[in-house]
Design brief:
This protein is mainly alpha-helical. It has one domain. The protein is built from ten helices and no strands. Helix 1 packs antiparallel against helix 9 and helix 5 packs antiparallel against helix 9. The longest helix has 23 residues. The radius of gyration is 18 Å and the shape is globular.
């Protein structure tokens, strides 16, 4: 799926989690922003992905390291049947597993609980990723031309989220809420790629049909891209559903 589609699904998921698990209206907004960025994290295993190029050269460097780690884990854990496919274990491998989603959530929880600046930094990072991806895909700009604009938008995201994140509510917010939002956001990305023909290794590290890296996909997979009608529908429904959650959660009855 396209980066904007992943971000949209994470936005809706984060808003729902903030409304259900949070205890303040600001939780919905913050979790929606965090969820949008979290739903992009699994694609950090691909330097040429939207998120891999979103905050160049920072995310590009992280993507190269992540892809290297993914290939290393693939070589360590692949069975003979996996290796027979000559797959290098890069994109859609380690970061697209259920343990990886849990790991992203655990790291977010640790960051959010690390002190006064933990939660603001987490909110800024996730928001900056989301804005960077959306800017690239909406404008279609090349890397060289887009970088100044992306960095400016990232600075804007940092400023806005700092003003929100340093409120007394966020300082005292439960770090587990952010950990859950990031973990579920990453999981939503994985399930989104499960809908596509390429699939994802949902069983890892367990074996399925002799493979640890068996790619599971939906019984009715669909093609992705700018011309994909199913992906467009998913994106629109998520963008419309997010404000609907706010209205349902915080509009007074009667």
């Amino acid at each position: 799926m396209m980066g904007t589609s992943h971000a949209a699904t994470g936005l809706l998921t984060g808003a729902a989690l903030g409304a259900i698990l949070g205890d303040h209206p600001a939780d919905l907004v913050l979790c929606a922003a965090v969820g949008a960025g979290a739903a992009l994290l699994p694609d950090l295993d691909e330097p040429n992905s939207s998120v891999g190029r979103s905050l160049a050269p920072i995310t590009e460097g992280i993507s190269h390291l992540t892809r290297g780690l993914s290939r290393l884990v693939y070589r360590w854990t692949a069975t003979s049947r996996d290796s027979a496919g000559h797959d290098e274990g890069g994109h859609r491998h380690l970061t697209h597993t259920l343990p990886a989603a849990a790991g992203f959530g655990a790291l977010a929880w640790l960051l959010a609980s690390s002190g006064l600046w933990g939660a603001p930094v987490l909110v800024w990072l996730m928001t900056a990723l989301g804005i960077g991806v959306i800017w690239r895909e909406v404008t279609g700009q090349s890397r060289a031309r887009a970088t100044p604009a992306i960095l400016s938008l990232a600075l804007l995201a940092a400023t806005l989220t700092y003003l929100v994140a340093t409120t007394p509510h966020l300082v005292g917010a439960d770090p587990r809420l952010f950990g859950i939002t990031v973990g579920v956001g990453a999981l939503v990305h994985i399930l989104g790629d499960w809908l596509t023909p390429a699939g994802v290794p949902l069983a890892w590290p367990l074996k399925y049909r002799g493979k640890r890296w068996w790619m599971f996909h939906s019984p009715l997979p669909f093609a992705t891209g700018r011309q994909s009608a199913p992906e467009w529908v998913i994106r629109v429904l998520c963008l419309l559903g997010t404000p609907a959650i706010w209205l349902l959660a915080y509009t007074p009855a009667g």
